[in-house]
Amino acid sequence: MKFISNSIGHEISAVLHGVDKKLINDANFLKSVVMDGLKKDNFTILKNIDHEFSPQGYTLTVLLSESHVAIHTYPEHNSIYFGLYSCKAKGHGRKTYEYFVKKLKPEEIVVDMKDIVVKK
Q1: Staple 69 to which of 28, 59, 84, 106, CB 3.0 to 4.6 Å?
Q2: pLDDT above 80: residue 104
């Protein structure tokens, strides 16, 4: 007998292209946008760790009660990777993602959103 679960989580993976150079190089701005978006989406933030690379680039990972979110910038390509996984509910995290996009105003987005199921 094959078992397939109901959806146990929601994953959003996106690359934002054509982001303004000022924004993509402002680590404080990027961190505040992610944290504000998570709060608006009612995530429980446990910890975060970030790093600014030399001469450029920034990465942020936030551990959540509901799972995690990460961003990584590619200033040389005016692009940012955004990845979020939530095990809270179907579609959860979409507000965080939409807030991030609204604040960064990319020229183009390549995004994949999917529900996660467990197969046995």
Answers
A1: 84
A2: yes
